[in-house]
Amino acid sequence: MRIQPIHNLIAFKNNPVPKETGIDSNADKGNKTVQQVATVGAGVGAIIGGLLIHKNIKLHKVEKALADAFASKFPIDVEYRKSLLKAVGIPESKWFSIRSIIGGQEYKSIVSEFANSPESYTPGKTLLTAAQDDYDLDGVIRRNFRLSLHNHTTKSDGKMTVRELLDQAATYADEVAEANKHRENVLAQDSPFTIAITDHDTVDGCQEAVRIIASNPDKYKNLRVVFGTELSVENRMLGNNLTKPVPLHMVVNCINPFDKTLNEFLDATKIARKNVAQKFFEEYVTELGNTQVRDVASRLSMDEARASSPTLQEGLNYPWYYMKEYVKTKINPAEEKNVMEIFGRVQARFEPKLDLQDYCMDMADAMELFAKQEYGYMTIAHPALTPVGWCIKHTQDAHKQLESLITLFKMRGGEKALGTEIYYPYFGDVARSRDWLETISRATKNCGLYPTGGLDSHGKNIFYSNI
Prior knowledge:
By secondary structure, the protein is α/β, with parallel strands linked by helices. The protein has 20 helices and 8 strands. Strands 1, 2, 3, 4, 5, 6, 7 and 8 form an 8-stranded mixed beta sheet that branches. The longest helix is centred in the middle third of the chain and has 29 residues, at about 260-290.
């Protein structure tokens, strides 16, 4: 696929919306009363139109009317914003200045509206059938791509800085707002584009985002930002059906990234993971030293491995993948087969020695924590990638056990267990396993969970997973 430069993907000023979208650039803006302008559902275009007609109305009065309407509809979100501002030393009275940061009430409303709109989670029309990132940007060009609730920054293993992610998303949100302002029956009209920051096992990027948005709120006025984290957990809830815990990722959105209990929980996990990575490295180097590729051991350094990966440096996510990637940079092709076989052998021997608390939080413990948190909704991340079949006694029961896992997730999480990532860029064998995806959809519906989604972006572009 020919990759376009990133500025061609996010700068739409010279890229008109196709006529078939039904947008009439000469449509009558109509007269807006102050009361009409002061509704939560009013778009930015309506606000501006109201100001042009009522020139004698001062801006702060319109903002107050909008703030009052918002507070009436989403009162818990007002308190959420106040808690964020308090944490960064900004007066709580300024809560509407970070209106672009949404709390749980508005988040749930948006997810509910888009539950039956998979195209709104899709930047390209071939997303569900293409190889990874090998799709067009039809949904972006038409401004129908509206949500991406799973993304990573340089605070974990992504390549975008927090500011780059926010600025790309804000540029696109402005274009969606402009394109949709005269459309009828637009879902979540007041939320042109919603994006989440969900770094692995850390909330540092969310903390930074509060300060960035608060410093220039007008720049992000059309964007809706969700604060979250992606937790690497292990699930024992299937009980006697298991041969080993099921590794699972869980996205928790609309969290308070400054919450002390949450940060203590994440910090303890990070410390444990760093200790495990160090122990594994020592055992692996010792094993290498007793083989025909012993020379490789002298080239490896744990300090160098940490420097090569924020994930290893900070103790985020499972360490094995990132350690393996580091090792590959220190060997030549002739050595790779033996070195990687030894890596796999040590990992297979090493992991069973670990207790869960040594390197991975138990899903039940994590869910208990968030059930007690004032803010936060839980979603099973990319459930179709969950290796249930590898972890149960009878592999033919994988579909049944996956349904049970989703059911137990809802039972354990209650109101805080909100959804599953059905609208996700699955590709390859997973995308072709329609019965597997249908199992997830059925269990999601039966449990009263919402289908959600995100691109799980790790690259330099909010419209792709890795580019």
